[in-house]
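batch job 7 of whatever, protein = Transcription-repair-coupling factor
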Amino acid sequence: MLIVCESAGVKEKANTAIKLQNEDIKYLLEDGELCRGLDEFTMTFPELTREYEKKDTVFLDDFARGSFDVPVRDLVTFTASTLPVWNGKLDILLDDLSPLVQKDSTVVVMGGTEKAAKNLAEDLENEDIPALYFPLEPAEFPRGRVSVLPGALSGGFGYPHEKFYAFTYGRNAVASKKRKSRSGFKKGQSLHSLDELKKGDYVVHSLHGIGVFDGINKLEVGKITKDYIKIKYAKGDVLYVPVTQLDLVSKYIGPHEDDGRTVKLNKIGGKDWEKTRNKVRAAVKDMADQLIALYSKRQNSPGYAFSPDIDMQSDFERRFEYDETSDQLRAIDEIKGDMEKP
């Protein structure tokens, strides 16, 4: 079965993607980086419609259309609503679940990890909300009870006429503070589109260093006209970079005039940028040597062996409102193991 959401939007995006891809393929063929016969990467929209016809396709559109790109067998109208992503606070979830359970509705809650889902089912029972934990999706969800499953969805949803409601836990619902980087070295901000640049912005070319973005120019080279990024350097030097090599250019995020510091432009062919790169390599190597010496010293120093987890710690972890990733859980176990060593 193939499910298509907002078929008109799919058609528009598919046609736009093909146009952009054809432009890229044209440049690659002109540059000799691609040959005929190896230039088909994406299904065209007519090819996509043929896939619609081959498969059992369901179109989910907000508004009924007068015609579709393929023959439609039936039109079915139903009402659906979006439900907010649950942020992990039990009292908020109880306010949403209580009236639904009383109305004999089918309620499903995706509780995140397996541990968190089991704990949630137990907590709901303690709050007089009938709940069942299912490790896997059952053949049929019971009515009048909350079915708790591990996992998560991109958002919650409900079908009021069918009395079916699905809630999901999500990290995006939890406000978090951004951590400030402590590193003294800042990597340039990668560019994904030319729209991110405006004339006069400082940019960094991976080979030639810091320059000033001076717009987009069309140049004819070998009877082929292409768009080039113009970058001005010190001593009046100018570099033209094909837009197809945008990955070599990043936005400069170091100290600016706004910080009261002058940005020094590099010179094409000069040694300053190479010296800067060598300094960074040397600094990274020194940092690695210092870390090796530090961990070696720590490894050989006698330490204090902490006791294994007590009930209070276990209960705290069981009710921890955030959903740890597998890497975080592994790191926690490793840290505890190190702390319990003599």
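notes: Residues 2-60 form one domain.
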